[in-house]
Write a structure and sequence with these properties.
Order of helices and strands: EEEHHEEEHH
Helix content: 25-40%
Shape: globular
CATH class: Alpha Beta
CATH topology: NE0471 N-terminal domain-like
Strand order of the largest sheet: 1-2-3
Distance between the termini: 29 Å
Oligomer: single chain
Number of domains: 1
Largest sheet: 3 strands, antiparallel
Bound molecules: zinc ion
CATH architecture: 2-Layer Sandwich
Number of strands: 6
Length: about 130
């Protein structure tokens, strides 16, 4: 996957704060700066397994409200943090989380799409949070 030519998806600086758990800071070629919590990135993990889980969760959520059944209590999970992070080529970062999950590869393209700020939500995501 080549680096996207869109300057909004091209990072000029990537800082991954693994040791203090502060998250990931990315500055983009268009001057925008994004900050991501590791727990947020874990939730937005783009791997097939997590995509599947998210779809199922959304489906169960719909069913639950339709049937008005009491939702199953989610298992207690501590907030995941990063254990290690590596750059993958010049297009992505890979994060190993403390919950043992490490298959998620976050392309910069994807990272800009999921930037948690309101501006990017408007520019890249149609579904409002
Ligand atoms: Zn995943
Ligand atoms: Zn943003």
């Amino acid at each position: 996957m080549p680096t996207p030519p869109d300057p909004r998806k091209k990072p000029t600086s990537v800082k991954i704060h693994v040791s203090n758990g502060a998250g990931v800071d990315v500055t983009w070629a268009d001057g925008h700066a994004s900050h991501y919590e590791f727990a947020y990135l874990r939730d937005e993990c783009p791997c097939a397994t997590c995509n599947d889980a998210r779809e199922k969760k959304a489906f169960i959520g719909e069913m639950g409200s339709a049937l008005k059944s009491s939702p199953a209590l989610p298992m207690f999970k501590p907030k995941p943090r990063a254990q290690a992070a590596t750059q993958v080529g010049n297009y992505a970062i890979q994060i190993s989380f403390t919950d043992g999950h490490s298959t998620g590869i976050y392309s910069y393209d994807h990272l800009r799409n999921i930037c948690p700020c309101a501006e990017c939500a408007k520019a890249f995501r149609t579904v409002a949070h």
